[in-house]
Specification:
The protein starts with a strand and ends with a helix. A 10-stranded mixed sheet has the order 2-1-3-12-11-4-5-10-8-9, with helices on both faces. It has a two-stranded antiparallel sheet with strand order 6-7. It has 11 helices and 12 strands. It has 333 residues and is α/β, with parallel strands linked by helices. 42% of the residues lie in helices and 20% in strands. The protein has 2 domains: 174 residues, Isopropylmalate Dehydrogenase; 135 residues, 3-Layer(aba) Sandwich (Isopropylmalate Dehydrogenase). The longest helix is centred in the middle third of the chain and has 20 residues. The structure holds 1,4-dihydronicotinamide adenine dinucleotide and magnesium ion. Magnesium ion binds next to helix 8. Its cofactor is Mg(2+).
């Protein structure tokens, strides 16, 4: 039995998460879903966006499934990633048939360092009208994120994927911080002679995910670069409604679609559940349920290919109807 902490959050989180729970239930696995609250609405009601009891639930479960927060996102999801020390932010970029993508053979994973870099939150006013943000790079965090990336490439290679890690940095300008980042990348690479290693400057990388995305397998980068690169990458495979993510640490796994609460479409029942269902697939793999994960992904692939989708992908189904199409296929097997 798996105990899952479910945090729907705000806006479309309240739609895409329940839709995904239906899919998870249809797998036949034994789940206990423990709901925790967080987000704007809780903040309005209780004056706190991430209540302590929600953090406690998250810590005692096997995994956390999170929808989206609104304006309190920094105090909810960014904080939760920190509390759970989930140092690797994993964002698969994959083209599915039936979805308008830049190319039809895109299949790589962006691994973003999740704990430091420019998002450490160290900002200051150092003189009248002068402000700074401190970019923190530690050898320890570099080593663990690179090991994570190479281990992932190795697992993917066993599944027939390329077996390559690409490091994106800006060592020519950020000579010390990214100099260290690049040096440790190649040090760790030596421990993985079976995996190819290459590196690019982040600006060029930003072009390559558009001009030659099919050549990548695992892409590893620092916090801010990864944040920007991964939203752009999502745009090459159908947009935010298609982009799942996992936050992985040594003790906890926190799973969330990349998108936010989407107030412009919230409450209309038209949010695309794909990103969250694919997030559920990542969670299943984390729990060691690869075979079940493959079944869910296959069912979803069929639904996408048939155009049984929400309006953002050109279809006319609601969030729940689309999820129901996946459920139907899982039950038919
Ligand atoms: P957003 O991701 O919520 O929406 C951007 C655009 O993509 C909107 O037009 C929206 O309708 C569309 N979209 C997003 N997900 C979709 C889906 N599943 N199906 C169909 N269309 C989808 O980002 P935005 O508008 O910048 O932020 C809205 C709120 O969400 C803000 O309050 C922001 O702070 C919060 N946010 C929270 C995040 C989180 O909890 N992880 C991440 C990003 C934003
Ligand atoms: Mg972002």
């Amino acid at each position: 039995m798996y105990k899952i902490c479910v945090i729907e959050g705000d806006g479309i989180g309240k739609e895409v998460v329940p839709a995904t729970l239906e899919v998870l239930k249809a797998t036949g696995l034994d789940f206990e879903f423990v709901h925790g609250e967080a987000g704007d609405e809780v903040f309005k009601r209780r004056g706190i966006a991430l209540p302590e009891e929600t953090v406690e639930i998250a810590k005692e479960c096997d995994a956390v499934l999170f929808g989206a927060a609104g304006e309190t996102a920094a105090d909810v999801i960014v904080k939760l990633r920190k509390i759970l020390d989930t140092y690797a932010n994993v964002r698969p970029v994959k083209s599915y048939r039936g979805i308008k993508c830049l190319k039809d053979n895109i299949d790589y994973v962006i691994v973003r360092e999740n704990t430091e870099g420019l998002y450490k939150g160290i900002e200051a006013e150092v003189a009248e009208g002068v402000y700074t943000a401190t970019r923190v790079i530690t050898e320890k965090a570099c080593r663990r994120i690179f090991k994570f990336a190479f281990d992932l490439a190795r697992r993917r290679k066993r599944e027939g994927k390329r077996g390559k890690v690409t490091c994106a940095h800006k060592a020519n300008v950020l000579k010390l911080t990214d100099g260290v980042f690049k040096r440790i990348f190649y040090e760790v690479a030596e421990e993985y002679p079976d995996i190819e290693a290459e590196d690019y400057y982040i600006d060029a990388m930003n072009m390559y995910i558009i001009t030659k995305p099919e050549t990548f397998d695992v892409v590893v980068t620092s916090n801010l670069f990864g944040d920007i690169l991964s939203d752009g990458a999502a745009g090459t495979v159908g947009g935010l409604g298609m982009a799942p993510s996992a936050n992985i640490g040594d003790r906890y796994g926190l799973f969330e679609p990349v998108h936010g609460s989407a107030p412009d479409i919230a409450g209309k029942g038209i949010a695309n559940p794909t990103a969250t269902i694919l997030t559920g697939v990542l969670m299943l793999r984390y729990l060691g349920e690869d075979e079940v994960a493959n079944r869910v992904e296959k069912a979803l692939e069929e639904v996408l290919e048939k155009g049984l989708t929400t309006p953002d992908l050109g279809g006319s189904l609601t969030t729940f109807e689309m999820a129901q199409e996946v459920v139907k296929r899982l039950k038919e097997e």
